Amino acid sequence: MADTLEFNEIYQEVKGSMNDGRLRLSRQGVIFKNSKTGKVDNIQASELAEGVWRRVALGHGLKLLTKNGHVYKYDGFRESEFDKLSDFFKAHYCLELAEKDLCVKGWNWGTVRFGGQLLSFDIGEQPVFEIPLSNVSQCTTGKNEVTLEFHQNDDAEVSLMEVRFYVPPTQEDGVDPVEAFAQNVLSKADVIQATGDAICIFRELQCLTPRGRYDIRIYPTFLHLHGKTFDYKIPYTTVLRLFLLPHKDQRQMFFVISLDPPIKQGQTRYHFLILLFSKDEDISLTLNMNEEEVEKRFEGRLTKNMSGSLYEMVSRVMKALVNRKITVPGNFQGHSGAQCITCSYKASSGLLYPLERGFIYVHKPPVHIRFDEISFVNFARGTTTTRSFDFEIETKQGTQYTFSSIEREEYGKLFDFVNAKKLNIKNRGLKEGMKQSYDEYADSDEDQHDAYLERMKEEGKIREENANDSSDGSGEETDESFNPGEEDDDVAEEFDSNASASSSSGDGDSDREDKKPAKKAKIVKDRKPRKKQPESKKGKDPNAPKRPMSAYMLWLNASREKIKSDHPGISITDLSKKAGELWKAMSKEKKEEWDRKAEDARRDYEKAMKEYSKADSHRGERSKKKKKKQEKQLKGKGDKKGTTSKASSSKSPAKGMSDSFKSKEFVSSDESSSAESKKEDSEDEGAASPSPSSEDSASGSD
């Protein structure tokens, strides 16, 4: 039997919402990693007390109970995986994986059982529903009923606000069943009540998010932010990570607390609590506990009396109470020697800290990106100036973060860091010797070895080639009309000719005026072929054979419906990504099968193309003959028109003394080959005859 079992796309139920992640079972215990937050739940094998397999909404689920009363629920298993899990539990955890189905009778009358941190409402031996008492935010009692209120969850579309239990009266002496019920709930509930004195208080701390100055009161299970306008109570169970980050000026420190779920004020959510400290500010701290309690609770991590820098005291107390490690910057050093990079995100300027396992941006808005959720990074040229560049990060979920206005001196340092962490760089490989190109970017003003610049140049060349191909020879004339050298020559000719022609033209102004329309006429002449361009480039012949598909496209057309059925509701872009992953993971033998199909399709296409070419050549010969015949007919008509126009022009002066309108009658009496030529000649003569007739009449009168 394998020592480990791994399951992807498993959902953990936390406060009413399902968080997806990966579950791993090993000899040492059970590990679940949340895909969204990166939080890891580790259950030691020695702590497991019970395992239950049951049918749930998302297939089948696994419920684990520990010896200290904690409950963990994981859904998304297939029914066929029960045997594998059951054998694993027997072999490594010495536990029987029990099968218990939920009661679906619909009754609302049953028995309440308290087990550890779980309230179970049962009908007979079957549970109807279970409530983790850590989700309870408040418990109130009435005459014969108990009301439970729950923490709101922003991630859940629908949240359960409260549940009321009716408790019938009993005849037991001295025991109120309602109060007993409430005490069982409150003993395990996550109820935030500021009872008793705080362990310690930090006064007037500068807070950047949410902005203002707050007093921080440290209680055993939560911290209380007390400001002039707002109060926030933050349970330690919602603290995800702690960060201690030095400011770039080396005189201040950021202390960042990551929260999940976030604190909220109205519609605003604060996922990070950011405190700013001065390194010079010191404090002497005395805990509101005796030395024995401090030693017993904190095991040497804190003492009753402490003194030192304010940021050290706050971070030390928070680390001891939250029981989480404090993340600090690693070995990254920027161009100025600082452990951060100045940049802008969205509309605000801030600091980007490369950490050992991610990036964090401080401070507006704060952003934390883990390496394991990064799909790729990209180095892009700045949009406003060449003195800076942009650093783009795209996550596996498709979210893109762009940190702009980074000084180019940081380029090589940041690339070396990203390369050392083995992150996927999008524009790597476009230029050989990528590391050298980044060094040259930091030192060179011309940026000749910038990979992004090289890519832009290649795209520019492609656009120029396409433009030259589509212009059909008209582009050269257009370029000549805008050639700076020719414009200089034209100016020189103007001033040379103006010296001799000044007496008639007056300082050469008329020459410039004559030349301007000439240039306009030239531009119009250049544009004429472009208007005819669509006529020369007509659509493809619909009867022509279609090009054969590649092996991948043949496979995709055959597999598209299967992918859609396996992933209902998948979008087109996600379908393409999924298909690419499946094709990449396909074995060589299966790919060869589709390669053979593509080769057969290519041979069929070549055969059909030969037949089409022969038929097309015959059609071309027939069209040429038809075109020649039409040209001959048009030429014959043109000759007849020419003879009639000559005859009319020679005969019209002979009747100089007659009226100008008689020319129409004269033309109409002439013989012509067609009625169409009569009409055209008469129209031309009607427009041209008045001037010669008037001249003849004038000469006759003289």
What does this structure look like?
The protein has 702 residues and is of the alpha+beta class. Among the domains are: 4-99, Pleckstrin-homology domain (PH domain)/Phosphotyrosine-binding domain (PTB) (PH-domain like); 111-187, Structure-specific recognition protein (SSRP1) (PH-domain like, Roll), CATH 2.30.29.220; 200-327, Roll (PH-domain like); 341-421, Pleckstrin-homology domain (PH domain)/Phosphotyrosine-binding domain (PTB) (PH-domain like). 39% of the residues lie in helices and 30% in strands. It has 17 helices and 31 strands. The strands form six sheets. The protein has an eight-stranded mixed beta sheet. An eight-stranded mixed beta sheet has the order 18-17-16-15-21-20-19-24, with helices on one face. A seven-stranded antiparallel beta sheet has the order 28-27-26-25-31-30-29, with helices on one face. Residues 429-453, 471-529, 531-537, 646-665 and 667-702 have low confidence and may be disordered. It comes from Falcunculus frontatus.
Structural Rg: 43 Å
Number of strands: 31
Tell me roughly what share of residues is in helical segments.
Answer: 25-40%
Q: What is the count of helical runs?
A: 17
Element layout with pairings:
Elements: E1 5-14, E2 17-25, E3 29-34, E4 40-44, E5 48-56, E6 59-66, E7 71-77, H1 82-93, E8 97-99, E9 111-115, E10 118-123, E11 126-132, E12 136-141, E13 145-150, E14 162-166, H2 177-188, E15 200-209, E16 212-218, E17 222-226, E18 231-235, E19 239-246, E20 252-265, E21 268-278, E22 282-286, H3 291-298, E23 305-309, H4 310-322, E24 326-327, E25 341-345, E26 348-354, E27 358-362, E28 367-370, E29 374-381, E30 388-395, E31 400-407, H5 411-420, H6 434-443, H7 451-471, H8 474-481, H9 484-500, H10 502-505, H11 509-536, H12 551-566, H13 572-585, H14 588-651, H15 662-669, H16 675-688, H17 690-701
